[in-house]
Design goal:
Helix content: 55-70%
Radius of gyration: 18 Å
Oligomer: single chain
CATH architecture: Up-down Bundle
Number of strands: 2
Distance between the termini: 67 Å
Shape: elongated
Order of helices and strands: HHHHEEH
Number of helices: 5
CATH superfamily: dinb family like domain
Number of domains: 1
CATH class: Mainly Alpha
Mean pLDDT: 85
């Protein structure tokens, strides 16, 4: 059993990454549904981005990362409007489209591709490292939105208490 377990594990490493990506997508999507609409244009500080911009950026860059992973291409996803004009429903719809496309595109990755190199500018990075980047980028911006939401709630609580 030990030998076959090792072989099966080695052949399913790519599936492990795809499962992490799927679960991260589900968690981020659930989080988006709980954001208040009026937080999209709000900034914690003048030098920071709005949560609407962060969500749009995430959608664009996740598609971009997948295109680098699969095609060594730099094509991304762009909304036709500026993020300031988008509603939360528009952003969630764009996110859902991105997730559908990404999961469909990545579904065919196999373990032997993980060590293949992809080049961006002067950097050469393995497909496996690009998958890590994809997961990290999604979760990093989820954390930023959590920070923004916490600050937004504290600001609104302090206005009520005054």
């Amino acid at each position: 059993m030990g030998f076959w377990f090792i072989i099966m594990t080695l052949n399913q490493k790519s599936q492990f990454y795809l499962e992490i990506i799927k679960r991260s997508h589900e968690a981020f999507r659930e989080y988006l549904t709980h954001l208040p609409e009026d937080i999209l244009a709000w900034k914690v500080h003048d030098t920071m981005y709005t949560s609407g911009w962060i969500i749009e950026h995430l959608i664009h860059d996740q598609i971009w990362i997948v295109n680098v992973i699969l095609n060594n291409d730099e094509e991304g996803y762009h909304f036709e409007e500026k993020p300031e004009g988008l509603t939360l429903d528009d952003l969630i719809e764009g996110y859902d489209e991105m997730v559908s496309k990404v999961e469909q595109e990545l579904a065919n990755i196999v373990d032997k591709q993980l060590s293949e190199m992809r080049t961006y500018k002067e950097y050469s990075i393995s497909v496996e490292d690009w998958l890590f980047e994809y997961i990290h980028h999604l979760n990093q911006h989820g954390g930023e939105l959590g920070f923004i939401l916490t600050a937004w709630k504290r600001k609104n609580r302090s206005l009520v208490e005054e």
